[in-house]
Design a protein that fits this description.
Structural class: alpha+beta
Strand order of the largest sheet: 1-7-6-2
Number of domains: 2
Strand content: 15-25%
Shape: elongated
Order of helices and strands: EHHHEEEEEE
Distance between the termini: 11 Å
Largest sheet: 4 strands, antiparallel
Number of helices: 3
Helix content: 25-40%
Length: 149
């Protein structure tokens, strides 16, 4: 599996942590608001509630809505809550490779974050996650991008 390690500096690391916790917190708030009555509400109502509550960029608000919708509809039999550091998906084209860095929206605005490149690059193929949806994940205080497909 392709795994790209991000090498954020202090402020960028804070932005990545805020992104994970912000998306998951909003998803949990939406789940709590619509739990037990989502069958009578529509996805449109969920999106409207998210826009009212969210201070996140639209792409991250949409991810929180997707997570809440999945929890309310797809796994309605069990209570689902997301941890603060659970992975966040980015749709194709929202994380852009720019010579040794990735440009991506975070909870604190767009950031350009350095990545660890293998010696010699990626074999002349360019950035291996170009054209793919990706997940931002945290493991042991380190941040990675992996394919979401």
């Amino acid at each position: 599996m392709i795994e790209i390690e991000l090498l954020p500096v202090d402020e960028q690391e804070s932005a990545l942590g805020s992104t994970l916790s912000g998306v998951n917190h909003l998803a949990n708030a939406l789940i709590a608001r619509f739990e037990g009555k989502y069958g009578t509400s529509s996805l449109k109502d969920l999106r409207a509630a998210a826009r009212e509550q969210s201070k996140l960029p639209p792409v991250l608000t949409a991810e929180a809505v997707r997570k809440a919708h999945d929890a309310l509809i797809l796994v309605a039999k069990k209570k689902t809550r997301y941890t603060a550091r659970q992975a966040v998906n980015y749709p194709e084209g929202k994380v852009v490779w720019k010579s040794g860095k990735v440009a991506m929206p975070t909870a604190k605005g767009n950031r350009s974050i350095p990545v660890r490149q293998p010696p010699g690059g990626w074999g002349g193929v360019g950035f291996p996650l170009d054209g793919h949806a990706v997940q931002l994940v945290e493991r042991a205080g380190r941040y990675f991008l992996i394919p979401a497909d």
